[in-house]
């Protein structure tokens, strides 16, 4: 079974600054995907960024970027130029390439302060 | 618009009163699943379905039932709800081809008194 660990239950960041969320995972498989989902107060699950394990290049989506360290099984999310709308819970998730079940971490609540 | 819908969005009920949460998708997806979200635990899979009439247990199936009689619908049934089933529930779907892109419903907040 795959496990995903997010060790930071809560984080706070000043508007326009940068915050980094950590995520580690455990798997013996080689082919998989990693995701960061955002859950704002509306509770909708919004895909922020996706990384394919076979790609060495770190994924980026505008102000969101990841640091994917496959050997260390680490997948951190960096939010640059934080905005008030970034306030949300963020979940790290894992998906095997030959499976459909997402395995989620416990989540990190991010609060952006004005 | 491609979407996954869930109903109801909010439900307060009492112990033992059977309820059904509906889930429907309009993308002709083969795969559908149910997750529950609890504080400190993230989302955990309850049941999933690979196609019509094909369902299987996820990680936390106790107390739940599902059915997949039509491709678009995947209802979650609580025959005798208990307070420990108070949670936020999500339905998700994906295509067999692009299974790494899962679409989530808006969530159903269930409270069992």
Can you give keywords for this protein?
heterodimer, A: 114 residues, mainly beta, 12 strands, 0% helix, B: 113 residues, seven-stranded mixed β-sheet, 11 strands, globular
How would you describe this structure to a colleague?
The complex is a heterodimer of chains A (114) and B (113). Chain A is mainly β and 114 residues long. Chain A has strands at residues 3-5, 10-14, 19-21, 24-26, 32-39, 46-52, 60-61, 64-69, 74-79, 88-96, 103-104, 108-113. In chain A, the strands form 3 sheets. In chain A, strands 2, 5, 6, 10, 11 and 12 form a 6-stranded mixed sheet that branches. The model of chain A has no long low-confidence stretch (mean pLDDT 96). Chain B contains no helices and 11 strands. Chain B starts with a strand and ends with a strand.
Oligomer: heterodimer
**Low-confidence runs of chain A (pLDDT<50, min 5 residues)?**
none
Question: How much strand content do the residues of chain B show?
Answer: over 45%
Number of helices of chain A: 0
Give Rg of chain B in angstroms.
13 Å
> What composes the largest sheet of chain A?
6 strands, mixed
Percent of residues in helices of chain A comes to: under 10%
Order of helices and strands of chain A: EEEEEEEEEEEE
Report the order of strands and helices of chain B: EEEEEEEEEEE
Tell the overall outline of chain B: globular
